[in-house]
Amino acid sequence: MPHVRTQIREAAIAALTGLPTTQNRVYAGRTRPLPAHHEPALLVYTREEVSERDAAGRPPILAREVTLVVEGRVHVAVAPDDMLDQIASEVESALAADPRLAGKALDTMLRRTAIEALADGERHVGSVRMEFAVQYRTTQTAPGVAV
Question: Which of 16, 58, 80, 123 is most buried when burial is the number of CB atoms within 10 A of its CB?
């Protein structure tokens, strides 16, 4: 069984697929090459994780918190700020609708948002990177099973 982190990413991708602005352009991983003049897209990946013993016993239960990153990217003819805000609004609403991420997490909370924009010739390139704290638990011996 895949690690619960993988299952969390998959659940987030499922929750984010079909949003009005990014539609089905939702990709796992931070290094997805996007073509020039691409349609608005989302990249979904995890970063650092911290864990600690949550309950004694054998096997011990670990309380974990992973950073889930959802990065919206645009390449548009006008300043991207409004579109990036729209993407952020859609993503935040979708993840707030199921903070347990299909039962894989205990909770999901937005922690940080970073917005970048620059002009690339005649077009504008922009991104909005939202970092969500996702809390979940596993036993120490079974990281593929959420408890």
Answer: 80
